[in-house]
Write a structure and sequence with these properties.
This is Tripartite-type tricarboxylate transporter receptor subunit TctC. By secondary structure, the chain is of the alpha/beta class. It has eleven helices and eleven strands. The protein has two domains: about 180 residues, D-Maltodextrin-Binding Protein, domain 2, CATH 3.40.190.150; about 100 residues, D-Maltodextrin-Binding Protein, domain 2 (3-Layer(aba) Sandwich).
């Protein structure tokens, strides 16, 4: 038998604790539930982290898309799942408004789910098909006022942050437009590119590639400052609406009563995978800013978002199916 080289000894020493950690994870197939259609941002993030998580946890992971009701159908499935570390949930910002929009939800977000982390944030972008004549947000607003019946705009769903932002913008600007709700960002983008709607509001994570390909023209973004991937696109604040800042977000949850050590382990592995160069670069390309917060921060963040945007839902009298 050949001699054991120093490199092999080091590799072996490193592999032992990694293997031991992997063996500690509960056996069985793991599910990452994405409560929106394939092709959207949550789906893209899940597929980016899947290989790294499989390796670090030593288990098989499948991604299951369960779209519908602004993400609440898939969320309900996770809320009812055993807290055994085999089911995890990705959510979008509609998670904070669904309890107000859908009072009959079969779960309580505060007690039936455990926050794991705020994954990341990105601004929303208001964009239109390049064939449309308006080049700025001001021109779009003026054109919507001049058109009989106004404009239509697409969003990822009723009471999504995009929808609520456009409601506030309409009140402040006098813009005339009607909402067309979709079951996620991907189908909304397809119709915007095809010209079936006059404009779209969606996150930079959803629209960046279409903007880069010149399939859509960006008119404004909703972050507090300009996003580095779109340095030439003004914010709503710069466009004359100083109190209009809205930042979409993505988060990760577990079923309620999932043991704290299990959440801590999954959080640690997810944080590591998110910061691996190949994953981080692709997420950055999506226009997403990685946060990877701790569970306590996510709990407080959710409460704040639910209070702020839940009130906008109430002020506009929004309800499921309305």
């Amino acid at each position: 038998m050949g001699k054991l080289t120093r490199r092999a000894m080091i590799a072996g020493a490193l592999a032992v604790p990694f293997t031991a950690r992997a063996q500690e994870w509960p056996p069985g197939q793991m599910k990452l539930i994405v409560p929106f259609p394939a092709g959207g941002t949550l789906d893209a993030i899940a597929r980016l982290v899947q290989p790294g998580l499989q390796q670090r946890l030593g288990t098989t992971i499948i991604i299951e898309n369960r779209p519908g009701a602004a993400g609440s159908i898939g969320t309900a499935a996770v809320a009812k799942s055993p807290p055994d570390g085999r089911t995890w949930l990705f959510v979008f910002d509609t998670h904070a408004t669904n309890p107000v929009m859908q009072p009959s939800l079969p779960f309580d977000s505060e007690t039936d789910l455990e926050p794991v982390m705020l994954l990341g944030t990105a601004p929303n972008i208001i964009a239109c098909q390049p064939s449309r004549p308006y080049q700025t947000l001001a021109e779009l607003i003026a054109a919507s006022k001049a058109k009989a019946g106004g404009f239509t705009y697409a969003s990822a769903g009723t009471a999504s942050l995009g929808h609520l932002t456009m409601l506030r913008l309409a009140k402040r600007s006098g813009g005339q437009w009607a909402h067309v709700a979709y079951k996620g960002g991907a189908p909304a983008v397809n119709d915007a590119i095809a010209g079936h709607v006059d404009m779209i509001i969606a996150s930079s994570a959803v629209l960046n590639s279409q903007i880069e390909a010149k399939l859509l023209r960006p008119l404004a973004q909703t972050g507090a400052t300009r996003h580095p991937t779109l340095p030439d696109v003004p914010t709503l604040v710069e466009s004359g609406f100083p109190d209009l800042v809205a930042t979409p977000w993505w988060a990760l949850y577990a079923p309620g009563k999932t043991p704290k050590p299990m959440i801590e382990r999954f959080h640690a592995e997810m944080s590591t995978v998110l910061r691996e160069e190949n994953v981080a670069d692709k997420i950055k390309t999506l226009g997403l800013t990685i946060v990877a917060s701790d569970p306590d921060y996510m709990r407080k963040f959710y409460t704040e978002q639910a209070q702020i945007w839940g009130q906008v839902v109430r002020d506009n009298g929004l309800r499921e199916g309305g």
